[in-house]
From TrEMBL:
GO molecular function: aminomethyltransferase activity
Family according to the record: Belongs to the GcvT family.
InterPro entries xref list: GcvT (IPR006223), GcvT/YgfZ/DmdA (IPR028896), GcvT/YgfZ_C (IPR029043), GcvT_bac (IPR022903), GcvT_C (IPR013977), GCVT_N (IPR006222), TrmE/GcvT-like (IPR027266)
UniProt name for this protein: Aminomethyltransferase
Organism name: Paeniglutamicibacter kerguelensis
Length: 370
């Protein structure tokens, strides 16, 4: 088995005292000190994340929009230049190969961003599905780094490192949008999407300039409460925000409708996208299981893989769960039989033989104040 890959920022993480873990084939910082402190910093001030393990696949050419409408479940052709859209790429059976964000950078130019472990699979699938279309598919993952500033202080931090003329671009950028700009003298693609439930920005930059950009952002954030943040708090933050994680809530065995992602599947578009027939059948028949939020009524947390019970009978399984640092009680996401998915339904999670009470509540668990 090969050693995990290292991002261009590995030396920065090591110098900051990071604990590392293998994630999607990458040696990534799990935490730098206290994962709880990092979580709370993102909620209160800001955290700096290395997301360079994510993929970047460029799709360019006259047929780019039409091609993506056949390759992905969402409608990419209606997206305006400068905007972004969340979607999924499915197999013929409607199983989710990955969830991803696509940015429209021109009339005939798109950037598709898949998750770390799935990046090679998605790049290959897109290249294969491009046959017969006038498009070029270029996997730029190996040459591209991605840094994210997440938290209420994100705008103020970026204002420290952009020109006066670019400050309005930062503060006025809408959610799920992107634009080219210069940060600390470095040309970047700046996006505003996020995976933490907080305001924040993502900066796409060539590997050679990643360390310089990271250091500049760390310095700019010093007076704004910015600290480096690892994968551990990223997971607790996204769970509070009710956002699915591939390998937990999303998989080849699942489909968008059971994961509450039905609204991002477009049956209105004319293109016969991969998985369309299977997903039309799922929509017509109804999902056989439903992803729900669970609030712990006790102190113990459910974890991924734990059975969800009703009157001693298993009716589902936890996909992600842990104590919520922000809310002060255990939260979990779980797939359950649709008969037990209604808000307010009392369920138990089997915590190694002991039934712990939970209640179905609406997702997300946490929503930031606007």
């Amino acid at each position: 088995m090969s050693d995990p890959k290292k991002t261009s920022l590995h030396a920065q993480h090591a110098e900051l005292g990071a604990s590392f873990t293998d994630f999607g084939g990458w040696d990534m910082p799990l935490k730098y000190g206290s994962e709880l402190a990092e979580h709370k910093a993102v909620r209160a001030t800001a955290g700096l994340f290395d997301l360079s393990h994510m993929g970047e696949v460029w799709v360019e050419g006259p047929d780019a929009a039409k091609f993506l409408n056949t390759a992905l479940a969402g409608n990419m052709a209606v997206m305006k230049v400068g905007k972004a859209k969340y979607s999924v790429i499915c197999n013929e059976a409607g199983g989710i190969i990955d969830d991803l964000i696509t940015y429209r950078r021109g009339d005939e130019k798109f950037l598709v961003v898949p998750n770390a472990g799935n990046a090679p699979v998605v790049a290959t699938a897109l290249a294969e599905r491009a046959a017969g279309f006038d498009v070029t598919v270029t996997d730029a993952s190996a040459e591209t780094s991605l840094i994210a500033v997440q938290g209420p202080a994100a705008v103020a931090i970026l204002h420290e490192v952009v020109a006066e003329s670019a400050k309005s671009l930062v503060s006025d950028m809408s959610y799920y949008a992107a634009d080219e700009t210069t940060v600390a003298g470095i040309d970047v693609l700046l996006a505003r999407t996020g995976y933490t439930g907080e305001d924040g920005f993502e900066l796409y930059v060539p590997n050679a300039q990643a360390a310089e950009l990271w250091d500049a952002l760390m310095a700019a954030g010093a007076n704004h409460g910015l600290i480096p943040a690892g994968l551990a708090c990223r997971d607790s933050l996204r769970l509070e925000a009710g956002m699915p994680l591939y390998g937990n809530e999303l998989s080849l065995e699942g489909n968008p409708f059971e994961a509450n992602l039905g609204p991002i599947v477009s049956f209105k578009k004319e293109e016969n996208f991969v998985g369309r027939e299977a997903l039309e059948a799922v929509k017509a028949e109804g999902a056989k299981r439903v992803l729900v939020g669970l609030k712990g009524l006790g102190r113990r947390a459910g974890r991924g893989g734990y059975p969800v019970m009703k009157d001693g009978v298993q009716v589902g399984v936890v996909t992600s769960g842990q104590p919520s640092p922000t809310l002060g009680y255990p939260v979990a996401m779980a797939y359950v039989d649709p008969a037990f998915a209604e808000i307010g339904t009392g369920l138990d999670v089997d915590l190694r033989g002991k039934a712990e009470p939970f209640e179905v509540i609406a997702l997300p668990f946490y929503t930031r104040a606007k």
